Amino acid sequence: MKRVELGAIRVCRRCGRGRAELLADNGQAISVRLNPSRARRLLGTDETDDVEWLTALVLDGALAAGLTVRDLVFDAEGPALRGLLTYEHEGSLHVIACAPEEAVEVSMRIDVPTYATDEALALTGGGAGQQDRETLH
Q: How do 2-11 and 114-116 pair as beta strands?
């Protein structure tokens, strides 16, 4: 397992879909697909977005209820990427799964250690993306 940090969020000029790149110290990376609306939201470029996403409501509610987020792990479940969020409540640790897009948003909203398993790094290509391409396809 390796520690990762958000490197960049890129949006395709052709279709609007996005990708979030999470980078490890050794140059490996995880690429998480983002739908167009979420990509614009996370970049802060969606001027018409007047409603919150469910992720914000759930996260804010959980923190207000006294849950402490311990870490976030990107993991592979078969051929799919998922996020695993570990939280503490009343002295007990719990793990909950989420979509990788939600995990990216959580890691952007709160300062939480974020990791990727070797399987997740292998699943999404393992290397840094091509920054100069016009599209993400």
A: antiparallel
How far apart CA 81 and CA 9 sit, in angstroms, is 17
Contacts of 118 (CB under 8 A, 6+ apart): 1, 2
Pairing of strands 2-11, 29-34: unpaired
CA dihedral 7, 130, 128, 5 (to 10 degrees): 10
Tell which residue, 75, 63, 60, has the closest CA to residue 22: 75
Instruction: Specify the 3-state DSSP secondary structure of 113.
Output: coil
| Mean pLDDT to the nearest integer, 2-8 | 94
Give the model confidence (pLDDT) of 41-97 as tens digits. 888 776 656 777 788 888 888 889 889 999 999 999 989 999 999 999 999 999 999
Please state the CATH superfamily assignment of the domain spanning residues 2-123 in this structure.
Bifunctional nuclease domain (3.10.690.10)
Reported pTM: 0.83
Domain regions of the chain by residue span: 2-123
Taking the C-alpha atoms of residue 90 and residue 39, their distance in angstroms, rounded to an integer, is 35
